[in-house]
Every structure is written in C-alpha cells, then in structure tokens.
Amino acid sequence: MNRSKLRFYKVFTKFIKYYLLILIIPVIFFTKTYLNTSTLIKNNCIEKNISGLNKVIDNIDEQIKYVNQIVKRLQCNSKIRKFMYVNNPFEGSNTYKLLVTKKELYDYTMINNFIFDYYIFFKNSNIVLSPTHIYKIDSFYKNYFCFNYMPYYKWYDTLFNQYSYQYFLPQNIGNINNKKYNVVTYLQSLGYPTDPDAVIAVLIKNEQMQSVLKNLDIDNGGWAYITDNEGRVLSYVSSNDGHIDIIEDIDFANEYGSFEKDINGEKMIITYEKSSFNAWRYVLVQPYNTVMAQLMYIEKVSLIQMIIAIIIGLVCASVMAYMTSKPVVSIVNTINSKSKNDQYMNQDAFNYISDAVSTLINDKDKLEDAIGIQNDFITNTFFERLLRGGFGWEPEIDTLMEHIGIQIGNGYYCVAVILICGYGI
Questions:
Q1: pLDDT (tens digit, 9 = 90+) per residue, 309-360?
Q2: pLDDT band at residue 30 under the 50/70/90 scheme
Q3: 3-state SS track over the chain
Q4: Stated pTM of the model
C-alpha cells in the first residue's frame, strides 16, 4: 500500500468510526423499543389467558355451587335421613317409606343441563334411589350403571369405606343403561364420618365441563385441564389427538401465573390459576408459536427492517467518511508535498494539519516583523530621495508610496521644508 492510500485509509477509518457510533444510537433506541413492545405483547397474551381462565373458573364454580345446593337439600331432607337406618326396605311399612323417600327426589336434570343424573346409595338397605329408579346396589352396578375399569367391589369401597365431603372422581366413561357417557362424579357421604350410612352421587356431564374449557385457545396442539387439590385430573380438553401432558412443576402457592417450558421438544406457554372456591387448579398449555404469532411476526418484520437500516446506515457512513476524508487527505498531501520530510505517517491527520497551520502562522508573524523593520528603512530612503529630488516623474513617486503604505488623502496636503544647520542638509 503506497503512502497516499495509507494516508486515506487512516483518515477514512477515523471518520467512519464516528459515523458508526452515531449509527449505534438509533439501533439501541430501536432495540429498546422492540424489547418494550415484545414485553407488552407477552403481557397482553398472558392477561388474555388469565382472563379466559377466570371466566372458565367462574362458570364451573357457579355450576358446582348449584350442585352443592342440591346436595345440601338432599342432606337436610328428613325422609332421606330416616330411610338411612332402614334395613329391610321391602318388609312391612318400610316399602311405603321407600316409595315416599323416592318421591322426595326431584329430577334436577330438567332444569340444569350440567347434571346428567344423581343417585342416593343406602348402605343399610342396599338400595339405590334416583328420581326415576329403585335398584339394589349390586344389581344397579351390574345391570344399569358401571364405570370402565372399576369393578363392583372397588366402587363399593369408594362409596362406603371412606367419608366423602364434596369429593370428585375424575372423568370416566360410565356405561349407563347400555350407553356410554363421559361423566365426572360428585360424592357426598351422609351419616357419621367414621361409618357413613348413605352416599349421594351426582353425575356431572363432562362434555359440559369440556365445552367451557374449549372457550380457551387450545388450537394447534394445546390443551387445558382441571385438577383437584390432590392433583388428580378431573376433566381436560386437547387439540393434540386427545393427548395431554400433566405439568408437575407448577407452583400453586401463587394464585395464578404463567411461564414457558419445553415439552416434547416444543416450546410451550403454561398459564394457570387456582379457584378460590374449591382450590381446583386450571391449567392452559399452548404452543409458543401459536400464542406469540403476532410477536413473532413483529420480530421478523423488525429484524428485516433493522438489517436494512443498518446496511443503509453503513453505506451512508462509508460514503460520508469517503467524501469527508478526501479533502482532508488532499490538504495533508499538499502540506506534505511542500515539506522537506514526511512527518505525517506517524501522526494524526488533524494534528498534522493543526501543526502545519500553526507553523505557517508563526512564519507569517516573523515575516511581518521582518517586513516592518524593512518598511521603516524603505520609508526613510524614500523621503531622503524625495527631498534630494531623486525622482524623475510623479507616477514613480505614487508607485513607491503605495508600496510602502504612504497615503495622501483628498488631494490636499502641505509641504514644510526645515533647514537644520550642522547636519549636512
């Protein structure tokens, strides 16, 4: 690289550094604005999900409260409580008590679409009552109603070997009158906690709970589910071929929240909330790409715009640095060409120009001082020659007066001749 190109490169590099520093300012501002926008969009998505969960919770809580009211009425019914202690329901007046008790059971399915049916299981009489049926418990489970994968003895133990208080069994397929129904079962024991004499079982239509959950955005591989305070999944919906993954590491100490997690190699957003009514946990799992589609679009557009802006900025910075460097290098070359040695190569261009200008000013001052001394001598010589008649014609006098800076204004002047004896004049 010859010296001229090296000079240009050094000046060009200096200028482009400053222009790039200026370019960084809008890039930083743009990045900060983008990050703030991303955070705002994420927060809006989370708030939208939590709002959706709130509506689901309110809806299901209202339905469960209604079921609680029904069960409370049944618990407080005197005829039902008396029939709990009947041992032989088909002997004597017990048959009448059985029929009277059955008449007390109102068919709530006519006014509430959430309830599929309900039954009261009496341990002592081995009877099952519903608004429409009377069965012996064993015959009822074998011929009219049973759960998949739950034998009779296990069902019986669930009813009478524990005291159930507003206890829910997870969704299960019930074979009811030779038809399959997906139900969630509500159990409430009657009698002493150590030895319940009867159990109220309310069958809740799981499809109704699922229809509420489907109001949440679970498209493209998402799912939502409800668990009780023991962590059992009571009901769920999924757009992933009915498959769900239970999220084990949710901190339900917080009433609600949201976080991101990789599930089966896919980034997911988990939003959760806990019901203040019955401590059920509602969990919504969504693919990140689906929920943040708007954010990802903004990311893509913003990245493209930023790359284009940076490229344009670099081109402009390069052009401006080139245009600015060219005259500076030209000045340096001019100064250096008049200099006896090449001092610039190890010196900053602007310092070099500054030193050259300072030297030039100093030389000018010295020259003016020297000219001032010579000017006094020339002025004395001019007047001496003038007094001695040393000029032959007037234009010569005017020319010399102009050079030595003597001016006679307005055409009016006076000449005085003084004879000083003893000085040879």
A1: 888 888 887 877 777 767 766 666 666 666 655 555 555 666 666 667 777 7
A2: confident
A3: CCHHHHHHHHHHHHHHHHHHHHHHHHHHHHHHHHHHHHHHHHHHHHHHHHHHHHHHHHHHHHHHHHHHHHHHHHHHCHHHHHHCCCCCCCCCCHHHHHHHHHHCCCCHHHCCCCEEEEEEEECCCCEEECCCCEEEHHHHHHHHEEECCCCHHHHHHHHHCCCCCCEEEEEEEEEECCEEEEEEEEEEEEEECCEEEEEEEEEEEHHHHHHHHCCCCCCCCCEEEEECCCCCEEEEEECCCCCCCCCCCCCCCCCEEEEEEEECCEEEEEEEEECCCCCCEEEEEEEHHHHCHHHHHHHHHHHHHHHHHHHHHHHHHHHHHHHHHHHHHHHHHHHHHHCCCCCHHHCCHHHHHHHHHHHHHHHHHHHHHHHHHHHHHHHHHHHHHHHCCCCCCHHHHHHHHHHHCCCCCCCCCCCCCCCCCCCCC
A4: 0.69
